[in-house]
Amino acid sequence: xxxxxxxxxxxxxxxxxxxxxxxxxxxxxxxxxxxxxxxxxxxxxxxxxxxxxxxxxxxxxxxxxxxxxxxxxxxxxxxxxxxxxxxxxxxxxxxxxxxxxxxxxxxxxxxxxxxxxxxxxxxxxxxxxxxxxxxxxxxxxxxxxxxxxxxxxxxxxxxxxxxxxxxxxxxxxxxxxxxxxxxxxxxxxxxxxxxxxxxxxxxxxxxxxxxxxxxxxxxxxxxxxxxxxxxxxxxxxxxxxxxxxxxxxxxxxxxxxxxxxxxxxxxxxxxxxx
Length: 274
Description:
64% of the residues lie in helices and 4% in strands. By secondary structure, it is mainly α. The model is unreliable at 1-6, 175-187 and 265-274 (pLDDT under 50). The longest helix has 27 residues, at 96-122.
């Protein structure tokens, strides 16, 4: 049987026992590398206590627009981590574990998105190994255990670039499968492409809310490098589709606009955008 562009690469079939073993190994690895002993150490260095304090202030005051450190506006970083940690404090109480829990969740989301991409490109076996090995890397373990902006930024940017791979045609958007006695084909791939554009803009907007305009520079550089290596310059402009731009603006701009309306930027006392 000839493999079509919509079919996944073939992987060796696993027995039920092997599937259960893989599942247990992957779940254990994800837990041990990302969630185990999140609060074993106190908040380390200047950044973790500072970011946790700002998130705690947001949770206690209910002001989710203006990050404040010791009562004064602090705009060293945008608010995505602060929002995430404030929600964690509200759900689980104020602690080192709660302060670091958002980074662990973002690390998990980044890993799952890359596993999905590996599944689409290389098949189930590659995806399984990615889920098993990526969490064991030093960077993923370290930043998933840090109350900082690094993992939220890396995760949201990673997810955005996974959707960009679909927009660029590296992964063909898959629609809903329709099987008939004579054929098997896919419909609504245009809808799948539209969803990819929306989610690309959304997660890129979140990356900007995590660490500022660096997200635009890094994603744009990656897209241009891909176009340069593949000589598919026209495909690179798909990422500038109006739907993606609208989704990005609706995600990233409201906080900046609210800050301007509240006069936050004029009252900045320290820190700078990266």
